[in-house]
Hints:
The complex is a heterodimer of chains A (556) and B (305).
Chain A: H1 3-34, H2 40-49, H3 59-82, H4 98-109, H5 119-122, H6 125-155, H7 165-190, E1 204-206, E2 212-214, H8 220-229, H9 250-274, H10 278-305, H11 309-314, H12 326-339, H13 354-365, H14 376-396, E3 401-402, E4 405-406, H15 409-435, H16 437-440, H17 447-462, H18 477-507, H19 523-547, H20 549-553
Helix pairs in contact in A: 1-9, 1-10, 3-4, 3-6, 3-18, 4-18, 6-7, 6-8, 6-14, 6-18, 7-8, 8-9, 9-10, 9-12, 10-12, 10-13, 10-19, 12-13, 13-17, 14-15, 14-19, 15-17, 15-18, 17-18
Chain B: H1 5-35, H2 42-46, E1 49-52, E2 55-59, H3 111-115, H4 127-142, E3 159-163, E4 177-184, E5 195-196, E6 199-204, E7 214-217, H5 230-233, E8 243-244, H6 246-260, H7 264-274, E9 275-276, E10 287-289, H8 290-300
Parallel strand pairs in B: 4-6
Antiparallel strand pairs in B: 1-2, 3-4, 3-7, 5-6, 8-10, 9-10
Helix pairs in contact in B: 6-7, 7-8
Amino acid sequence: MSDTLAGALFIGSLVLVLAVVYRPLGDYMYRVYGGTRHSRAERVLYRLIGARPDAEQTWAEYARSVLAFSVAGVLFLYAFQRVQNHLLLSLGFDPVKPDQAWNTAVSFVTNTNWQSYSGESTMGHLVQMAGLAVQNFVSAAVGMAVAMALVRGLARERNRYLGNFWTDLVRGSVRILLPIAFAGAVLLVAGGVVQNFANADDHVVTTIAGHRQAIPGGPVASQEVIKELGTNGGGFYNANSAHPFENGTAWTNWLEIVLILVIPFALCRTFGRIVGQNRQGYAIAGVMATIAIACVVLVNVFQLAHHGTVPTAVGASTEGVENRFGVADSATFAGATTLTSTGAVDSFHDSYTSLGGMMTLFGMMLGEVAPGGVGSGLYGMLVLAVITVFVAGLMVGRTPEYLGKRIGSREIKFAALYFLITPMLVLAGTAVAMATGSGRAAMLNRGPHGLSEVLYAFTSASNNNGSAFAGVTVNTVWYDTALGLCMAFGRFLPIVFVLALAGSLARQGRAPASEGTLPTHRPQFVGMVVGVTVVLVALTFLPALALGPLAEGIHS
Amino acid sequence: MRMPIWIRRHLAAARALLVLTVLLGLAYPLAVFAVAQLPGLNDKARGSYVTAGGRTVGSALIGQSFTDSRGNPLKRYFQSRPSNAGDGYDPTATAASNLGPEDIVDTLPDPALLAAGKQDENASQSLLTQVCARSKAIGELEGADGSRPFCTPSGVGAVLAVFGSRTATGDVPHPTRVVSLNEQEGVVKAPFVAAYKGVRVELARYGEDYAKGLVVPIKGRAPARPAVPADAVTASGSGLDPHISPAYAHLQATRVAAARGVPVADVERLIASNEEGRTLGFMGEPVVNVLKLNIALDARYPTRQ
């Protein structure tokens, strides 16, 4: 079988599986978030937390709960890293230094999982599993909770309330993420992903050539699975999902891509169920799938064509690529990880062809909405749908409506603010970095590729992705601080705007559909949202891309 | 007395975090650990260790170097891919090169330091030169053609700096000076091309600034599909890739067979029996596990060392 055909079948099989689980998983999540009953275990959890699970919250209360929980997460994770040398399973590592601990704490709480550290030489097992991996769960659950609040805002009428954050948090963690993670972790162990508590010094072998080799251990499988499922992306080891102990076979690679994409796509079904029109869910999923398939195919095309000096000399784009995955499946992983907010990598994007690397950048610049992070993808795409009906309304001179909700000046202001945050952070951050000596000194490569590295870093942090053109040296006080701020603003400002939008939508009644109402479930609307998304991003980022990957990749 | 609402909210947040940490950060990984102790899973959960001659020699999933103490390839063993993990295949320092597709100009070493027998810490090879040097070395080791596009016969990137006024499209039709950027005076006798557009090509001198020149890689006449396969001249993402392509295994068969004094056909058969195809016919790429292949070699065709 040719490489191209195998790569195409790989993509096709992913599409098939995601299509098959779309309904059952989406319906299950609908029952989870819409249910009124609490299991006995959940009642115990609510009592321990001290929350009343049926007390509804306004958008402002909901937002304050999200922020309080996230602040607690950052402080706890920071302290955890700073005292790790006194704890069990520390592997003898020193405390993480302050700027790096801040960066890492923000990174994991914001679902970014940008890593300025190398896992195998910095973090003890306890910090990994009880600190970092816990945030992998709860930051994902926070994203889903916020998405549910927005959907309730669209579904409810003349109502001040959006649900209860603590209930949504617990249900998302315990009823959705935990069972899938547990099953996935066992599968990954079967594929060779390790799950133990060994110290690297425990397993020093003498190889058949007579060298000493320290084989690492760790509770990797339990963390690897939630790293993908929660679209987090922070690797247990420095090499992330390229490491054979995180991703040992071609089929674990396939499984990890499924885990990355499964919840973001299925949440569209949940959305459709909650607003009472499944076809609206299909339309949003259609937008996501159109963009996702186009981007993944383009990464594959550019990587397999291996344009550029070094790839031509090599004869393939194999630098930074594992043999067991090959160029095509690695490109598919790269597409999936940057179209979502995951940022796990099974191959190294810095060494990709110029245009292949640009597509990974582009996926993040889209705002990670196709299908995006768990929860954050859905709320991002719904904001884009709101902007699209606004644009369409301007064209025909009617007051725009989405699902019977009027998009007035208050709503469009929140949507516009939501959209403007990340480009501001990305472009201003990159500009400041390029204007300062400590910003420029971090580049590994010269010329346009160096700019791409810095642009990628700020794009990744501000969009809460976490992957990198990893040549850039980011473990400096300057980058740890700057990127930490980008991650925090890039996560929480949009969340506040989304919740404010949700609150304002929930208060409205519903306008009945009339002749002039733009139907938002037809292919025409799908095409319009795709168009608006791509045009907005192109207008914002094309100049920056022209100086980086386009300058490098377009030549004779 | 009731506490202010914002304190109660943060207290709830801290309690929620604590409760979820116990559940998701301790109970869950321990439960996975417990299930991973089941027979069939426990070996994999430990690290897929392999034994040879009654001792543990590594993990089936973690690649190794098959070199002598100075880093030269041991001829009796199949060689792994190049690695950027520490000094090569060091699991405590996994890494990729992260060098880009247009990383083609070397930073040359100070000849004074080299003459004193020291390393120049500031010097670095471009990705292109790394690829060319590996290809040349492997070609010599295996008795194959190690040439590649954009590589000089001496095994560095074939890259010129062309000086002179540029046209609107950025070309330099009438160069005034041409320098071969990766070939250093005193290291190389003559540049890989004598002249470029009628101008004599100079060798590069340490410390000179060539930034004003237009960087032009020269493709040359090497075959577009070189004899040395792609995976043999590029490093993997983790630096721990346990596999090589079947093509690279076949390239090494003749040399391994000669070193062990056995017919090439026998070694080829061993490669074929160790080749792993694509999972389900379409996932991943066909590969050969180097450690397993070398263990099988030692078992079947032992050598005296």
